[in-house]
Amino acid sequence: MPNATVLVVDDEPLIRWSLVNRLKEEGYRTVEAGTASDAVAQHRDGVDLVLLDFALPDANGLAVLKQIKDTDPDTLVIMLTANTEVGIAVEAMKSGAFHYANKPFDLDEIVVLVEKALETTQLRREVRVLRARQAQPYGPDSIVGESTVMKSVRALIERIAQSPASTVLLTGESGTGKDLAAKVLHYSSSRAAKPFMNITCSALPETLLESELFGHKKGAFTDARADRSGLFVEADGGTIFLDEIGELALPLQAKLLRVLQEHEIRPLGATKTQHVDVRVVAATNRNLESMLTDGSFREDLYYRLNVIQLDLPPLRARPEDVLPLTEHFLGQFGAGMNPPRRFRLATDAQQLLLAYAWPGNVRELHNVLERGVALCQGEVITTDDLPNHVREKKPADFLAAAVARRMSLAELEREYIERVLDDEGGNKTRAAARLGLDRKTLYRKLEEYQRSSAEPPPTDA
Q1: First-to-final CA distance of the chain
Q2: Which residues does residue 283 pair with via DSSP β-bridges, in sequence order?
């Protein structure tokens, strides 16, 4: 097993030295511990195999073995003991040890045991990943698209999934599929057998969000009638998806930063911390770099989250994906009916979808097709089954006019949102559905427009 890390635990420095040097000669990385407490701490940082002495100054090896197995049942342990009694070896094997070696031992025999143990570890991990992939609801093929950019996105997601990176930042406009990308990242990784937890940071008030993320102790605040573990503990070993990370309040940003740096959480009302091993995937449709400038997002948290960034392109930048996505969604809708049906688009309806600029991205396309399925007569969706804004008010024409007026992207977005809202008679729910936005995002944008309109125009000095 290449680049494996072996933890050598023995209170005798000479024995540690001989084992460490021989293992390094064989190409292994090594870490050392001379006490039980150091061994447990070193194991938490991640090792592949433990050579564990039975007699340690602060505890016996069986107690350490139990703690290691409680933390990670897949970690293999070879017990080292000077005691030749068979009972010690039997008890160690019953407690989960892979094998044992009596002192004085032959270093060549130890190397052979290490090789066998690491081969077993590798096989266990491969089996776990294969089983998880067979059962996974989301794989790279879940991301539909034949464009060059989407092929690159799929390939990058697979590479990120297999990387050791503990944080990933997903960026892109609303409706581009950041939540799907987060699920594919999780289920394509070695964490697939562990939980995937997600939460929208704008969905809860600050105090409740802190409790939801980090947990609380009974009595920590009003209505805290029982202990709660929190999503970070529940996702231990897996992935937590923090959507709309740009909406996280500054006090919570500081606490999240500490968790990412120290891999420990402290529930509300608790006095002790708890170790967690979680990959954090954060997503935003906001410009975090501009938020650094105005102080609404911490610079240190931004760089800690942005270890690997994946930007999901808008649908208008990949029009060749419109029809493959359409076929995919229509297949889903039809398969969910009883009896199943096979929907398709009329040729002129296809042309309308290709001419449309999709400001609400993939989510808007999904909504438009869902409406078409509900309204069509038979199994062919015609232009009459498409909403008016797709049939009559093509954003492609609107975009051309905007380019001629040299509008910025922000100005373009604002004018289009206001036009859609006006078309819907001010009904924000219908406007949000047309735009492919959730209502909270639409409300926030409208509030921003209102504030900017109320600001006095700049004056020349």
Answers
A1: 69
A2: 170
Closest CA to 27 of 118, 93, 91, 125: 118
Give CA–CA dist 339/326, Å, rounded. Answer: 21
Looking at residue 237, its amino acid is G
Inter-residue contact 50 to 78 (CB < 8 Å):
yes
Q: Which CATH number fits domain 5-131: 3.40.50.300, 2.60.40.10, 3.40.50.2300, 3.40.50.620?
A: 3.40.50.2300
- Which tens digit of pLDDT belongs to each residue from 36-87? 888 888 887 778 899 998 888 888 888 888 888 887 777 889 988 876 656 7
- Residue extent(s) of CATH 3.40.50.300 domains in the chain: 140-311
Q: Count Cα atoms within 13 angstroms, Cβ side, for 29.
A: 8
Contact in structure between 210 and 248 (CB atoms under 8 Å): no
Strand-pair partners of 79: 52, 100
- At residue 299, does pLDDT exceed 90? yes
Show contacts of 67-74: CB within 8 Å, 24+ apart. Answer: 67/40, 68/39, 68/40, 68/43, 69/95, 69/96, 71/40, 71/43, 71/44, 72/43, 74/121, 74/124, 74/125, 74/128
Q: Is the pTM of this model over 0.85?
A: no
E strand or H helix at 282? strand 279-284
In angstroms, how far is CA 412 from the centroid of its own chain?
31
pLDDT in tens, 337-362: 888 899 999 999 998 999 898 989 99
Assign 3-class secondary structure to 90-137.
HHHHHCCCCEEEECCCCHHHHHHHHHHHHHHHHHHHHHHHHHHHHHCC
CA geometry: angle at 24 spanning 22 and 26, to 5°?
75
Residues 6+ positions from 103 with CB-CB distance below 8 Å: 15, 80, 81, 82
CATH architecture of 140-311: 3-Layer(aba) Sandwich (3.40)
Residue 166, judged by CB atoms within 10 A of its CB (0-12, 13-18, 19+), counts as: middle
Structural domain 315-453, CATH architecture: Orthogonal Bundle (1.10)
Is the separation of the CB atoms in 416 and 408 below 8 Å?
no
Strand (E) or helix (H) holding 169: strand 167-171
